[in-house]
Amino acid sequence: MSRQFIRIKRLHPNARLPERATEGSTGYDLYACLEQPMDVGPQPVRVPTGLAMEFAAGLDVQLRPRSGLSSTGVLVVLGTVDSDYRGEVLVTMYTLPQRESHVVHDGDRIAQMVISRAEDVSIELAAELSATSRDTGGHGSTGR
User: Fold this and answer.
1) Going from the N-terminus, what domains does the chain have, and what CATH number goes with each?
2) CA-to-CA distance for 11 and 32, rounded, in angstroms?
3) According to the model, what pLDDT value does residue 143 have?
């Protein structure tokens, strides 16, 4: 299988390319690209990365929270970048209500970009579904 590429365009000269923090990292760190610091509070705000990208259909590019920020109450909305989108990648951030606002500076690591494959499937209507041992057990049904 040939290696897939994601082409990145810098929309701002100071924009940093995504990079893995360690060899074993699944996600690529995304960095804020800001002219001035930005306050993030309980209302979601979109933080620019200064990057646009191009990649083949069939790749699934997701924006996810960073665990270090999440543990302090600074969250990122899980997002998907579609293969036909060519605009700036923006990261939607907010803080938990009990936390003071968080200041994002230019170059701060704000999210992770995780890439996987997306299967092209057909959706079909079914009158019945096959039974399983879990069956209709929902959230928390397999233990805490």
Assistant:
1) 6-117 (2.70.40.10)
2) 12
3) 61
